[in-house]
Amino acid sequence: MTKNFQIKTRLQDNIAVIYPKGHLDAHQVGRFEKEIVRLIKENNCRIVINGKDLSYITSAGMGIIMGYIDEVREKGGDIKLCALNPRVYEIFDLVGFTEIYEFLPEEQDAIGKFTAHAVQ
Amino acid sequence: MPSANSRPMQSNKPGFSITIPSQTQLLRMVVELTKHITVLYHFPPVMAEKISLAVDEAVTNVIKHSYQNSEDRELTIEYFPLPEGLKIRIVYTGTPPQFSTNEIDLPQMIKTKRKGGLGVELMRRIMDSVDYQTVNGINTCELVKWLKAT
Question: What's the rounded Cα separation, in Å, for the pair A45 and A43?
């Protein structure tokens, strides 16, 4: 049976890239939150969410991004989103996230934002 | 287990209704069912996806806020085809909802590290109307979408 929601993370140059896959709703959001909290605790506060395989998101998932962004930024990091499919991007846009967060077309663009910032 | 009823279209009775236990594991089923019914009622698939998200948000709010995540309560989702649209009514008991009528202030929500409060806003931005009522201990959330607006 296919799992409704899966999450993987890899580290590259002290940047954590999260790959949420599938259907992220209120039933699955605990796993997403646990992963974000784990990264922050381990001081991995430069976070990229690669949404290429994210097929669905509700306010529960967006609330996690909203709830931890301030802590992440206080620690010198940020959460950037990339590679979202247009339907999922539209949901973020509906509540105004696209004005507050950086959405990049590709993962390397998002990673590049962190590395470029570190060089300056 | 969920129970479902299908009736011919009548003015004061839903075209279809389903009663489910208050369990978040059933949200996915609610989304798929809503998408299917919405397409049957002539909404384009892209709009059907958005309407099903609005219903997901409404049902999640019932489970989380009115039933405080108790899994042994019930809620009923009723689908009313309208001549030019669709009305979806969620009927439940529990704590009556209290939502702000103001638009959300995202920067302020970020500053206060809020994780909730986006669901109702999403519902309002997707649907043409969102109306909560409580009468004699029965809560209802009515969502309406007009076809001409899609």
Answer: 6
Q: Percent of chain A at pLDDT above 70?
A: 95
Residues 100-119 of chain B whose Cβ lies under 8 A from any Cβ of chain A: 104, 106-107, 109-111, 113-119
Q: Are strands B16-21 and B3-6 parallel, antiparallel or unpaired?
A: antiparallel
Whether B150 and chain A come into contact, CB under 8 Å, resolves to: no
A57-104 residue pLDDT tens = 999 999 999 999 999 999 999 999 999 999 999 999 999 999 989 999
Residue of B64, B109, B126 with shortest CB distance to A26? B64
pLDDT greater than 50 at residue B146? yes
Backbone angles phi, psi at A11, to 5 degrees: -105, 135
- Of the candidates A4, A58, A95, which has its C-beta nearest B60's C-beta? A58
ipTM for the predicted complex comes to 0.92
Q: Which of B25, B57, B117 sits opposite A58 (nearest CB)?
A: B57
Task: Label residue B147 exposed, middle or buried (CB < 10 Å: 0-12, 13-18, 19+).
Answer: middle
H/E element, B87: strand B85-92
Token pair listed for B114: 């809020």
